[in-house]
Amino acid sequence: MSDIKPAVVGVGTTTFGKLPGHTAADLGAWALTEALADAGISATDVDGLVTSRVGYESIAADMRLRPRWVSSLPAEGRMCGVAVHQAAAAIATGEAHTVALVYGNDGATARATYGGAGEAYGTATALTLPYGLTSPGAFYALMLQRHRHLYGTSEEQLATISMTFRGHARLNPNAVMRKPISLADYLTSRYVVEPMRLLDYCLINDGGVAMILTAGDRAHDHPKPPVHVLGIAQRAQLGNSDFPPEDFWAGAIREVGDRALAQADRIRNDIDALMIYDNFSCNVLFTLEGLGYCGIGEGGTFIQGDRLAVGGPLPTNTSGGHLSESYMQGWGISVEAIRQLRGECGDRQVHGARTIQYACASPVVSSVIYGMDA
């Protein structure tokens, strides 16, 4: 990346939930309309486009875009970090000056499934189906069971994540699930794939998210304060032999987290909040441990005492995350990072936030450091 860091100058989201009558392209265009207005620009100012889970042709046609640089990414949530990385690289190399990143998801009304018969995401393969591994939840259940066996991680400890993020969602008017969760609620919720319970799972909903990135030297020509992409890194950890990984992603997460921090010229103590890809609650533990915020196997103990809550020492997923706001596959919590740094989050605001880290542990591991100080 060049010395002039790219910056996010506009973000937009739709409402989340069941939104019948809207295609994924409709939702992406809705979010992009909001992001363009937030950035104070028009479609003619956009010369780069990255899309995920929605076709670039549909977005370009609906929004009358004429990009000179385009990238269309697969539907998996791990692509959010990849999208930011691609856009930053395009800006750094001069391929584009202002890039729109657009995500649209009609999963709720389309009755999308992740695993089982008829699912469209390639979750289950011929090598795993005979063993009952037909969904992402099954793989993460194996990881959680091993974590418990090795380190004694308890249900009560894991419940802290669902309860904390639901508490954040109660402060977010756009969150889908806002009913409080007690420990008893968690412990009596049904198992989906034991040892993971219903409240350990993310929420499949409809919605759209968009971000506008531009070159750092142009970033102050917009109505909102720019949020700089200070550091970004990714690493693939693919293949059936590596999923589920025996180290809970720790090696890959540590590598990308350290690389992103080094690019940003920051250390972990500089991070004011975290946005962690919480497709399942246990992935928060794996990510915290891998990033080095606590030791391997110490995540269950580390998160106690409101450590991850707004007002705590390491606020995490302050929108409610995938577990309670909506499963926007990394995109929603990325926008939350921007809004937090701009001081726009009301009752859930992390006061004085200047630097936030996004991290996704998955077959493509990524981390982004967002900051107000270039």
Can you offer a commentary on this structure?
The chain is an alpha/beta fold and 374 residues long. The chain has 2 domains: 1-112 and 204-224, 3-Layer(aba) Sandwich (Peroxisomal Thiolase, Chain A, domain 1); 125-198 and 227-374, Thiolase/Chalcone synthase (Peroxisomal Thiolase, Chain A, domain 1, 3-Layer(aba) Sandwich). Helices cover 32% and strands 18% of the residues. It is built from 11 helices and 11 strands. It has helices at residues 24-39, 56-63, 79-92, 136-151, 155-169, 183-188, 250-264, 281-291, 299-302, 321-324, 331-341; strands at residues 7-13, 48-52, 69-73, 98-106, 191-193, 196-197, 206-214, 227-236, 273-276, 355-360, 364-371. Strands 3-2-4-7-1-8-11-10-9 form a 9-stranded mixed β-sheet, sandwiched between helices. The protein has a two-stranded antiparallel sheet with strand order 5-6. A hairpin with a 3-residue loop joins β10 (355-360) and β11 (364-371). α1 (24-39) crosses α2 and α7 packs across α8 (281-291). It is globular, with a radius of gyration of 19 Å. The mean pLDDT is 93.
Helix and strand arrangement:
Elements: E1 7-13, H1 24-39, E2 48-52, H2 56-63, E3 69-73, H3 79-92, E4 98-106, H4 136-151, H5 155-169, H6 183-188, E5 191-193, E6 196-197, E7 206-214, E8 227-236, H7 250-264, E9 273-276, H8 281-291, H9 299-302, H10 321-324, H11 331-341, E10 355-360, E11 364-371
Parallel strand pairs: 2-3, 2-4, 9-10
Antiparallel strand pairs: 1-7, 1-8, 4-7, 5-6, 8-11, 10-11
